[in-house]
Amino acid sequence: MGEYAWEGRMSLKYWVWLSSASGVGPVTAARLLVRFGSPENVFRADAEEYSRVEGVRQTDLTRLTCKNLESANRILAACSQHGFRVLAYQDAEYPDRLRNIYDPPIVLYVRGKLPYVDEEPAVAVVGTRKCTPYGQTTAEDLGYRLARRGLLVVTGLARGVDTAAARGALRGDGRVIGVIGSGVDVVYPPENKKLFEDVALSGAVISEYPPGTPALPAHFPARNRIISGLSLGVAVLESPKKSGALITAARAIEQNRDVFSMPGNVDAKSCEGSNLLLREGAIPILSGEDIADEYADLYPDKIFSGSMAGISENPDKHARKHRDVRGGAWSGDEKEIDNMPKVEYIDLNGFLSRLSGNEKVVAETIGVSALHADEIITASGLNAQQVLTALTMLELKGCAARTGGLWRIINTL
């Protein structure tokens, strides 16, 4: 964007006016800043001066010549009332990674405490809203493993893969940045209210849209550039050909970020896009371990080894330190196994004799116990992809169920 003078925090109302109240987009706003040197100078310019700036349209002129700061002042008052931070493009805490993309947001609204992103191995996890049970399990496991290894998880907090990845990261005692397409006070989807609160406690919910802005369809493709811009790489799970996740991957490529993709069922529509990314050169992954290992040498003081991270431990042991992101609260030393549905006696030997392949190995590993997927992976000798696929198949057959993160055999074939 070039260099232009910083006018101090008193000029924040002009940044807010330029980013939202003026109605121009981030690219036009950037050109205006380069031309006039500061948002206050942009505000004080006239129509003739605006018209000399490349890319300024007639509609932009109409908006820019409306010299009214009332909307900007209302936005700042709402942020002050609710404790939301406003980061302008030239603030020291504004992430350089985001500042250096083609179309950075002029202002960020922050609910929570934004980590120092430029010093963090941040990875975005995105995918379809309509994910399968396998996709949800995989995304949650990915988020958990990234967090346990010390990576910062960035996601959109949408339904499906985004929600599962955020929950997994929180279970792993990790931090999450949720980038949303509404004001930071507007929860969308509405059932994620507790998740939004927990993300804000561990990290931050951020948006380029001021408080009160509804979640409009056009906002979501725009926010995807922020998701990728904050991250070293983007991991795509279960994505159809036409999806926001592929838009995020495309923006990541434009921004010279890594793109990872997890193989999915070749016959599933929900995996066509993510499988296509693999064919086009995305880095294949089978678990969060692959991503962590990719950046371990670059961030030796941030990314833990698997053994140091205690990756084979039951993650629910760690999750008891925090409020349950699904809406409840951990009560003392209560174990999830106590809440498992009661089932009749299982003829395990007879059950196992009718299974084969990885499903049999997984079922035999679980036995009459209740285990987390991490424990099954460690004990069975199978990799994460094999275990998660087998668990999904057993669940679809009505032979296994998961409650509180623990898997248990519940029925005979």
Outline the structure in words.
This protein is of the alpha/beta class and 413 residues long. The protein has three domains: 73 residues, DNA polymerase, domain 1; 179 residues, 3-Layer(aba) Sandwich (Rossmann fold); 74 residues, Arc Repressor Mutant, subunit A (Orthogonal Bundle), CATH 1.10.10.10. 42% of the residues lie in helices and 12% in strands. It has a nine-stranded mixed β-sheet, with helices on both faces. α9 links the parallel β4 and β5. α8 runs parallel beside α9, α17 crosses α18 and α17 packs across α19. The protein is elongated, with a radius of gyration of 24 Å. The N terminus is likely disordered.
User: What is the CATH C-level name of the largest domain?
Assistant: Alpha Beta
Q: How many runs of DSSP E, i.e. beta strands?
A: 12
Count of spatially separate domains: 3
β-strand percent reads 5-15%
Q: Supply Rg.
A: 24 Å
Unreliable stretches (pLDDT < 50, length at least 5) are 1-8, 313-346
Strand line-up of the largest beta sheet = 1-2-6-5-4-3-7-8-9
Mean model confidence by pLDDT: 83
CATH architecture of the largest domain: 3-Layer(aba) Sandwich
> How many individual helices?
19
From the 3D structure, determine the CATH topology of the largest domain.
Rossmann fold
Name the overall outline: elongated
SS class: alpha/beta
